[in-house]
Amino acid sequence: MLEASHEQKTVSLGALMGARDSIGQGLDALIGQASAHETAGDWVSACRVYEDWLARESADRQPMRHLVLFNLGAMLQAAGALDRAQAAYSEALSLSPYFAQALINQGLVLEKLGQTEEAIATWAKAAQCRYSDEGVAISLITSALNHIGRLREQQKRYDLAHAALEESLRLDPKQPAVIQHWFHIRQKACIWPVDANLPGISPNERLTSTSPLAMLAHSDEPAEQYIVNKAFVNRLYPMQPGAMHLGGTRSHKARIRLGYLSGDLCTHAVGLLLPELLRSHNKEKFEVFVYDYTADDGSGHQDQLRQIPERRIDVRPLTDEQIAQRILEDEIDVLIDLHGLSSGARPGVLARRPCALQGTYLGFIGSSAMPWLDFVVADNELVSDSMRPFMTEDVLAVEGSFLPWALAVTSQIEPAQKAITRAELGLPEGKTVFAALGNSYKINPRLFSSWMRILSKAPDAVLWLVDDNPAATKNLRQQAQRMGIAPNRLIFTGRIAHAIYRQALGLADVFLDTYPYNCGSTAVDVVAAGPPLITLRGKTMVSRMGASLLKGSGAAGQVTDSFEAYERAALEWANAVNANANQPRTFMQGTAVSTEQMVASMERQLIDRLKKLGYAGAFDAPFCVRSNQS
Fold first, then answer.
1. What pLDDT does residue 254 have?
2. Distance between CA 316 and CA 280 in Å, rounded?
3. Both 360 and 296 in a single domain?
4. Residues spanned by the domain of 446
5. Helix (H, G, I), strand (E, B) or coil at 605
6. Do the Cβ atoms of 40 and 216 come closer than 8 Å?
């Protein structure tokens, strides 16, 4: 996310006015006095310096009064006195209406106070300062536009966010973070082509400024993903790998200590997969710690998930250094990060290397390009031969699918309030429903064209999509119209509670996977609900998740390797489902490998890797799959 930080804490007279007269020298002394108090952490005295000065003389005898008011506002803002900061900025702007710094900081205060539309209007005024006679710096104009884009993106008003960020990039193309968000917003809003040209931005700059998540959905080329991931790590995480573990001890002998690091113990795609994973560990051989920095979401799922680990440590208040130190003190043998390059990652913890053996799993389906990660948990279907040269981690290939799925297939699904019907979701009775409920950013022109060809060959069918944001819904309907498909054959459903959603998936006849970013936890839910999953396999890890799940679970569906085969399979499975409409759906479990078996294979390999590092401990007892009920 683009940062919402102060543009400038305080201003120096030289920086803003270029003045060195007696008034300027006096103000510099005043600012120095206040700054000394601020540095000492004495906000009250720092503010009093400015307030006493403002009270001494009338405004007509203080030509620099707006600067002092701004500095007072900035100090009050930093101290959390937002109402008083707002008053100081307002008075400064009454004296200098085109004071861009004050407008930007005032917008940030209004945002903190929950007045989002007023904040955006204030930044819009700051952006208009370029038309004034006061020579406002372009960096301030782009900052105001970027704040508008940031807040509109949070509101899912992607059309407005896109307009603001594109205008910012036209003023200053050399903003990698803004390019990153502009690109991904185009994906989320289905503004195609997403990789449009902008003046002053070369194809290489656009590529290396793209986020790893966006590239997973954009390209099925392992080399392109590696270039993007490496550039992202170099730009955002330039720290050098540490060796904190060398100063640690290992006094425990009874069990191997396995730590997970996550901020997704909630109703997040990863959090929805964790219960089965955490329950499947062999508790006689592994002591599982979860270092949790997840924000509270108030859900029952989160409450239950937090109860599963043997040891859950709330590390939300801690810095990266403190978390790493705690992991070291807990004598963790293996640390597995559940974020990779996804939002909310804490690479500063892993970069310090509190463990000799560190890996990544589930959070980011690809190579992280982070030098402090030794392995990635995957499977032999997930990692193609063409992918391996572009991976910085070793592959820990588990048996079956790397996706935890068994809990869903054994029908231990949290109950919904009541059975949901097609009519309640706006889906037609008596027609084939192709569901394609992946996130909107996973939809691209080639994939959407394939779906439209399926609909053209199945005239009584509809396509069921997520109504994620108004811009994407509008754009997809327009694209369908251009391709000769009536927009009303696209049925959009808003997001609903997860328990209801899992049940609703059973209303679909066929589920169409996305490509090149396959569905992950959604596909696990599809396996639970019963519709056949039609997936298109590619060259990258993320484009092979569907194949991994189908082969590991033995569930209904088909793995394809071309759009032609994908479309043919969708139509054939739809015909088969309709021909057996009154028959109960069954799983083809002949080749299934349960999550318990998958986790046991992961544990065996972790033990092998620890032995190679010279670890000793409870490594020699025979391994077996243990029931979750034990």
1. 82
2. 26
3. yes
4. 409-579
5. helix
6. no
